[in-house]
Structure to design on (302 residues):
């Protein structure tokens, strides 16, 4: 039976992973809350090493990260410690105990100037501290480990955590008018879809997940398919959700990124090509709109 160490089980993706991975083994959550039975603070390397050596997992799934994209601009060292250095330490420890490793990265490793979906080996060129640190994490893993999967995803949302869907639904209750950026496009991706795809891949690798990942190691893009702007995504949320009728919102206004300045630069184009993961593992990521419909139905809003 797999012993799966799940780092960051309180996050959007981690929370979904906790449930989906249960059918592939015993899931052991590790968090930065000091009162957690297994306490890992990615900013403190000794906590990473101690827990992994203690648990001796067969698989480590790292869903934890410094995800505050704007704040990272003023906390580059902390963001680098968590996103850039810690994944390399996890990878070292995974190799030491012959555990497979699954890690998540981002479209922010690219500069967003392309007009066709990014392939896994397209040139990286992060434009923000967050993107830079996530790229450093990818490189740190690849430098020491050869039984890992890195899933680059984008525009993650769900019914838990801080995300665009929940922000829009809240704002619709509070405001009559919302302005949303219309010149950044990407593929909104449901946190549960990421977790379910991860669990399917893990179950394909049973019983010897280490050997399985060693045979498939590398970076894969894992997002919904097709593209939409943030404004288009907001429009779809309100069209599909009943809260549009009951909320205060009357007008959704498209704006340019320049009209919504933020400390970190966001890629104008965030779409990732998912053919590689489909071919390697027989997965078919859903269209972003189909997934959104299911999320809203699941929440009782659709
Ligand atoms: P969340 O922000 O929802 O969750 C982050 C998790 O990391 C939380 O469990 C948090 O714990 C934990 N964490 C933060 N700092 C530390 C630390 N120092 N030590 C231990 N744990 C820590 O992230 P998501 O679920 O959205 O992201 C999952 C992955 O997907 C990440 O790798 C992220 O970079 C990537 N990704 C996310 C995107 C998005 O739109 N959200 C887009 C593209 C990629 P706590 O609850 O204590 O804060």
């Amino acid at each position: 039976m797999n012993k799966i160490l799940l780092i960051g089980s309180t996050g959007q993706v981690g929370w979904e992973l906790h449930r989906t991975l249960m059918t592939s083994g015993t899931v052991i959550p590790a968090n930065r809350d000091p009162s957690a039975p297994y306490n890992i603070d990615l900013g403190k390397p000794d906590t990473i090493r101690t827990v992994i050596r203690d648990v001796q997992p067969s698989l480590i799934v790292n869903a934890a990260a410094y995800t505050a994209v704007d704040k990272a601009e003023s906390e580059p060292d902390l963001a680098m410690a968590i996103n850039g250095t810690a994944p390399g330490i996890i990878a070292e420890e995974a190799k030491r105990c012959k555990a497979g490793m699954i890690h998540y990265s981002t479209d922010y490793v690219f500069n967003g100037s392309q007009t066709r979906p990014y392939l896994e080996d397209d040139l990286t060129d992060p434009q923000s501290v967050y993107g830079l640190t996530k790229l450093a994490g990818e490189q740190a893993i690849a430098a020491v480990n050869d039984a890992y999967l890195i899933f680059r995803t984008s525009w993650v949302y769900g019914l838990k955590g801080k995300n665009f869907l929940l922000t829009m639904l809240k704002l619709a209750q509070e405001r009559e008018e919302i302005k949303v950026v219309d010149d950044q496009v990407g593929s909104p991706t449901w946190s549960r879809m990421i977790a379910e795809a991860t669990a399917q891949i893990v179950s394909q690798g049973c019983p010897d997940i280490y050997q399985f990942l060693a045979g498939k190691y590398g970076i894969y893009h894992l997002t919904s398919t097709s593209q939409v702007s943030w404004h288009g995504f907001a429009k779809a949320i309100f069209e599909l959700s009943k809260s549009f009728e009951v909320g205060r919102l009357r007008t959704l206004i498209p704006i340019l990124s320049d009209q919504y300045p933020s400390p970190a630069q966001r890629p104008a184009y965030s779409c990732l090509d998912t053919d590689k993961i489909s071919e390697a593992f027989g997965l078919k990521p859903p269209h972003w709109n189909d997934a959104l419909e299911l999320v809203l139905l699941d929440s009782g809003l659709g």
About this structure: The CA atoms of residues 84 and 136 lie 5 Å apart. The chain has eleven helices and twelve strands.
